[in-house]
Amino acid sequence: MEATMTFFRRVHLSFEHPYFRAGVGVALIALLALPVWRGLLESSLINHMLVQIPLLALAGWLIGRGIFSSRFAKWNERGIPGLLIAVFVMLFWMIPRWLDAALSEPLWEAIKFITIPLLIGVPLGISWPRMSPFSRAVVWSNAISMLIVIGWLYVAAPVRVCNNYLVNQQEAFGFTAMLVALAIAVYWIGVLFFGKWEKAE
Amino acid sequence: MRGAITIVALLISGVGVLWAATDGVQVITAEGARRLTIEEKPKPLPAVPLTDQRGEAFRLQDFEGSNLLVEFIYTRCVTLCTSLGETFEQVSREIPRGALGSRVNMVSISFDPRDTTSDLKDYGERFDAAPDYWRIARVESSDELEQLLETFGITVIPDQWGNFEHNAAVHFVDRKGYLNKIVDHDPPTRTLETLWKRL
Fold first, then answer.
1. Using CB atoms within 10 A as the burial measure, which of A5, B39, B63, B111 is most buried?
2. In this structure, are residues A164 and B157 in contact, taking their beta carbons and an 8 Å threshold?
3. Which of A84, A92, A101 sits opposite B7 (nearest CB)?
4. Residue B49 above 80 pLDDT?
5. Tens digit of each residue's pLDDT (9 = 90 or more) over A102-130
């Protein structure tokens, strides 16, 4: 029992070390790229869009916070440029056509595995600490509303939008996305009302 | 200043990427993409041997010189393929008898390996399909079936009831044997309009 607690405490402290963080990020990508995990996480739209892709972005975030955090500082004033890169790439992978492409063609699958960590996770990771409270609030509220709208669209869509997924998977994803948005909203409100107000980094 | 330039540059390139990614905001689905591409770049068809509902062998190339309508079905399909069949049935009723078989031909290709020649025959009888202008066909070799599905851009995925889900449409092949238009099969008026323009 003692040993387990010490182990977890060590891991928690290790996360302070940037190379450890980056290493975890790289390991996460490698893990997700294994055929068994890819098969599992790409089997349904929910798994693909709400688990695999966010995990890839998280891996990029860890790498960004790990080894790139002071790079590009001159170009990344207030974190806005990094945020813009992340937003555009996110919009790209939300287009059903390109999600289908990643499933049908190995080239696009590879591109997905590279661009999501590198162009969504890393920019977000290095930009977030630089962003003002106002920018962060904009990001939080937009993320929530965007998720709700997408969820609603997928539930209400009259046709199958992805050739690789069934209509009921599409609907299930829509409902789940709206639930996730609700959860994020609750968490955010919790942070706003009960969290400590301090500037990171 | 550097910040402003960076942001403007990123906005322009970001919008550019999304513009390219949606073909000028025209397509957001793979289905939309394949329909747009086929009109811009018609494709020749692979010379895959097919067997029709009489058990006779033929190829899609045999219909060069005539307009050819192709759709992909499987006989155990509950709703979608009935609708596809009804569209072709509608075509066979609206097009003058003299043109059927000479200027207009139809092929419904089954991608289900379980479909036998007698399954195809039953399917054809449901819609009064006369084999001289409307063939219900199957592909013998699975490799060649893959090739055919890939050329036409059909993705088949199993659904939770042991059947298949697939993107369904009416595919138009011109007189020279090039696939150059893909149209919604429902309502049949869309197929008919496109066909009338080609006759």
1. B63
2. yes
3. A84
4. yes
5. 998 899 999 999 999 999 999 998 888 88
Nearest CB to B30 within list A75, A78, A96: A96
ipTM of this model?
0.79
Phi/psi at A132 (5° precision):
-70, 160
Query: For the whole model, what pTM was predicted?
Result: 0.83
Between A84, A97, A161, which is nearest B14 by CB? A84
- Which residue in B has a C-alpha nearest to residue A80's C-alpha? B7
Burial code (b: 16+ CB inside 10 Å, e: under 16) for B94-113 equals ebeeeebbebbbbbbbbbbe
What chain A residue is nearest to B158 in terms of C-alpha separation?
A: A166
Which of A183, A196, A118 shows the shortest CA–CA distance to A148?
A: A183
Q: Which of A102, A7, A124 is nearest to A49 (CA)?
A: A102
* Mean pLDDT confidence for B36-49: 91
Does the CB of B102 have a partner CB in chain A at under 8 Å? no
Length of chain B counted residue by residue? 199
